[in-house]
Amino acid sequence: MQHSFSLAMGLALCILILLNANASSAARLGKRNKSVPMPKENNVTTYFVKNGLGRTPPMGWNSWNHFGCDLNETIIQETADAMVSTGLAALGYKYINLDDCWAELNRDSKGNMVPKASTFPSGIKALAHYVHKRGLKLGIYSDAGNQTCSKRMPGSLGHEEQDAKTFASWGVDYLKYDNCENLGISVKQRYPPMSEALLKSGRAILFSMCEWGWEDPATWGPTVGNSWRTTGDIVDNWDSMTSIADENDKWASYAGPGGWNDPDMLEVGNGGMTMEEYRAHFSIWALAKAPLLVGCDIRAMDNTTYELISNREVIAVNQDKLGVQGKKVKNDTGLEVWAGPLSGNRTAVILWNRSSSNATVTASWSDIGLEPGTKVDARDLWEHSTQSSISGEISAKLDSHACKMFVLTPQSS
Ligand SMILES: *[C@@H]1O[C@H](CO)[C@@H](O)[C@H](O)[C@H]1NC(C)=O
Ligand SMILES: *[C@@H]1O[C@H](CO)[C@@H](O)[C@H](O)[C@H]1NC(C)=O
Ligand SMILES: *[C@@H]1O[C@H](CO)[C@@H](O)[C@H](O)[C@H]1NC(C)=O
Ligand SMILES: *[C@@H]1O[C@H](CO)[C@@H](O)[C@H](O)[C@H]1NC(C)=O
Ligand SMILES: *[C@@H]1O[C@H](CO)[C@@H](O)[C@H](O)[C@H]1NC(C)=O
Ligand SMILES: *[C@@H]1O[C@H](CO)[C@@H](O)[C@H](O)[C@H]1NC(C)=O
Ligand SMILES: *[C@@H]1O[C@H](CO)[C@@H](O)[C@H](O)[C@H]1NC(C)=O
Ligand SMILES: *[C@@H]1O[C@H](CO)[C@@H](O)[C@H](O)[C@H]1NC(C)=O
Ligand SMILES: CC(=O)N[C@H]1CO[C@H](CO)[C@@H](O)[C@@H]1O
């Protein structure tokens, strides 16, 4: 959400296109696949700041991907209403999060942030009350700099305690903390003070760090925040989504209950990808234990969008109590297998066709950490059907950019 990033994104896209070119020439040459080990159970006992939040990845909605700076309290109230009336709230989507542009440009005479009078005339406290009455939680946004990315409101650098107290007094439940206008100060000096200020604020406020993966936040984030962005901003297209999924994947072993890798918010429903691409986006985010923050206008979403984001079996993978991030375990020239362990000795698997030519995608038991003789029941989370007594491997023929997602449950011998 910052302009300097468009150049970086452009470069990233160029590199991606080069990689794709390599992938297809590799395919023609019949090059070998790359295999990586399955993730193991994490030792999560050492994890996290003591706020007790985010034991499973946070779920909800954020204004930015669809509304940008054009948000106001009516939109937020109607979104909260829609979250309940559509049944999404009951599926676990509980955070209603404001992004940038909710405040006046200047602080008041006491140095407090002030809700923007023209768009939030009732104030944030009233909005939090509105949201809480519907059984939901309210998230707010600030920045570890002297202004936010829009430059239309103040940042919290140097005002951490005062702003944390203000947010707590309003009844805020979640803070997304961005990285613009940061005066060149190290991330590691700018984020911990807000973490401490929130802990001292007297209210349980989930801390969502958004430093764009600058200083490998996975390596220090678990003691500072409940989630940390591992990448730059997502854009509503296939190249952005897939490259972000890959970047985030590198940090899988650092995530666990209380602290999650965040590959940015969902674009499902915003129109820039096909249904199959959005299905893959949602499936991979769920498997990777990413925060599931819907980024479309849920007041007006179409049936396809609803069908994707309301799949309770996929959501259950994301919210599984084991809390281990699934990862890419095989890339056979763009025919990929992603997998990870679930509670109850189960395994979640995604077969994903990212290549430029037709092929069947196969996960053999050795790819996904199962003993050779294991027989499983394979639940197809998108077809809602079960194949019993599969052994050795699971495979699928897939449409362009499509994926299949399974949960494998070993049969008791
Ligand atoms: C896991 O954490 C516990 C408690 O902190 C510790 O005693 C144990 O050695 C850790 N195990 C590994 C494999 O790191
Ligand atoms: C919010 O925006 C919508 C649509 O742009 C408009 O209808 C509504 O009146 C606005 N509400 C406030 C409080 O500005
Ligand atoms: C933020 O800091 C920069 C660099 O010191 C300065 O140029 C700018 O005026 C500051 N902006 C605000 C709103 O304080
Ligand atoms: C969405 O589904 C509902 C009921 O399932 C149906 O009445 C409606 O026509 C559908 N809308 C679209 C745009 O397909
Ligand atoms: C997948 O593997 C091919 C070569 O087998 C490689 O060119 C490509 O970069 C890989 N893609 C990813 C996303 O790892
Ligand atoms: C690739 O798959 C699509 C859809 O399954 C099919 O229509 C098409 O004929 C296939 N192309 C080739 C070259 O096999
Ligand atoms: C888990 O499943 C594997 C087969 O994949 C089996 O060998 C193992 O005994 C099972 N463990 C438990 C605790 O059920
Ligand atoms: C795999 O995806 C490519 C596009 O990346 C598509 O052309 C092809 O048809 C897909 N394969 C199958 C078997 O559908
Ligand atoms: C399907 C396939 O070819 N899988 C192979 C991928 O590569 C690993 C080792 O690099 C092999 O063990 C797999 O059999």
Automatic annotation (TrEMBL):
GO terms for molecular function: alpha-galactosidase activity. Keywords: Disulfide bond, Glycosidase, Hydrolase, Signal. Pfam families: Melibiase_2, Melibiase_C. One of its GO terms (biological process) is carbohydrate metabolic process. InterPro entries: Aldolase_TIM, GH, Glyco_hydro_27, Glyco_hydro_27/36_CS, Glyco_hydro_b, Melibiase_C. CDD domains: GH27 (cd14792). It comes from the Eukaryota. Its EC number is 3.2.1.22. GO terms for cellular component: plant-type cell wall. It catalyses: Hydrolysis of terminal, non-reducing alpha-D-galactose residues in alpha-D-galactosides, including galactose oligosaccharides, galactomannans and galactolipids. Coiled coil: none annotated. Residues 1-26 form the signal peptide. Residues 333-408 form the Alpha galactosidase C-terminal domain. The keyword Signal applies. Belongs to the glycosyl hydrolase 27 family. PANTHER family: ALPHA-GALACTOSIDASE, ALPHA-GALACTOSIDASE/ALPHA-N-ACETYLGALACTOSAMINIDASE. This is Alpha-galactosidase.
